[in-house]
Design brief:
23% of the residues lie in helices and 34% in strands. The protein is built from two helices and 22 strands.
C-alpha cells in the first residue's frame, strides 16, 4: 500500500508541475513573441517480479513480464516555436519575423542573446534598443533629422532625412537561427541564451540561409491558444484528482489490514 501511495504522489507532483507550466503559458498570452511550452514526462524504475522469457515449466517460457512501476517524473519542458499571429501596429520600429529566426540583442554582460520580440525603441543617442535598453545587433543608429524609417523584408534599413528626396541606407538587420532552438535557455525579458544543446547560431540577412523575412509595423504575438491551455488545465486537474484518489484508496486498504485483528 505504501508503494501505491508513493507512486500516486509522484503523479500528483508531476501534474502540479504541468499545471504550473500551463499557468505560465496563460499568464503570457499577451506577451510579444512568447512561445508556449509543454512538460514531458517519463515513467520511472520498475520492480520486476518475473522477467519475460523466464522459465515457467519444463521447456516453456513466460511470454510476458510481471513488473510494477514506481510512478512518473518530469524530464523536460519543450518550447513550441510555431509563429504566433501578427498584430498590425503601424509603428516603424515594430518588427516581426515571418518564418525561422531570432533578433540578436546585446546583453549587459556583453554576450549576445536572442528574441522574437521586435518591439524596438530609440535611445537618447538614436540607437535601436529593446524595451529594456539592450542594443539590437548589429548596432543600428537612426540619424537625428530622420523623418521616415523603412525596413525591407530583407532587413535593409533606410531613412528619409530632412531636406532629402531619396532615402539613405543606414544599416542591415541580421537574424540568427539554430539547429535545435528548443535547446535555448530562457532568461526572462523575452530573451533566450545559447546552450550546448542549441548549437551555435547561424546568422545571415533575412530571407537567406533558411531565415524568415522581416515585416515592418507588425508585432508577433504569443502563440498560446487559450482554449487549448484551458483543456490541458482540465486534463491535468483530473489527473491530479485521480492520483489523490489512488492515495485515498491505498490508505483505506491499509486501514482494512490494520483492522483485521478486531
Amino acid at each position: 500500500m505504501i508503494k501505491a501511495m508513493r507512486t500516486a504522489a509522484s503523479g500528483m507532483m508531476a501534474q502540479q508541475m504541468n499545471v504550473d507550466n500551463i499557468a505560465n503559458n496563460l499568464a503570457n498570452v499577451n506577451t510579444t513573441g512568447f512561445k508556449k511550452s509543454k512538460v514531458e514526462f517519463q515513467d520511472v524504475l520498475y520492480q520486476n517480479y518475473r522477467r519475460a522469457g523466464s522459465a515457467s515449466a519444463v521447456g516453456t517460457q513466460t511470454p510476458t513480464e510481471l513488473a510494477i512501476g514506481y510512478g512518473t517524473k518530469a524530464v523536460s519542458t519543450v518550447r513550441d516555436f510555431s509563429v504566433g499571429s501578427l498584430n498590425l501596429t503601424g509603428n516603424p520600429l515594430d518588427l516581426s519575423i515571418s518564418g525561422d529566426g531570432f533578433f540578436q540583442v546585446q546583453y549587459p554582460d556583453g554576450t549576445t542573446v536572442y528574441t522574437r520580440d521586435g518591439a524596438f525603441k530609440l535611445s537618447a543617442d538614436g540607437q535601436v534598443v529593446t524595451s529594456d535598453g539592450y542594443f539590437l545587433l548589429p548596432e543600428l543608429t537612426i540619424p537625428e533629422d530622420t523623418v521616415g524609417i523603412a525596413v525591407g523584408r530583407d532587413g535593409v534599413v533606410e531613412v528619409l532625412q530632412v531636406g532629402q528626396d531619396e532615402p539613405v541606407q543606414v544599416g542591415q538587420i541580421e537574424l540568427a537561427r539554430f539547429v535545435n532552438p528548443a535547446g535555448l535557455s530562457a532568461l526572462g525579458r523575452n530573451l533566450l541564451a545559447v546552450t550546448n544543446a542549441s548549437g551555435d547560431p547561424i546568422t545571415d540577412i533575412p530571407t537567406q540561409s533558411g531565415l524568415g523575412q522581416v515585416d515592418q509595423g507588425t508585432l508577433e504575438m504569443s502563440n498560446v491558444k487559450v482554449v487549448d491551455e484551458m483543456v490541458n488545465m482540465i486534463v491535468a486537474q483530473r489527473a491530479y484528482e485521480m492520483n489523490s484518489k489512488a492515495i485515498q484508496t491505498a490508505d483505506d486498504m491499509t486501514g482494512i489490514v490494520n483492522n483485521l485483528k478486531r
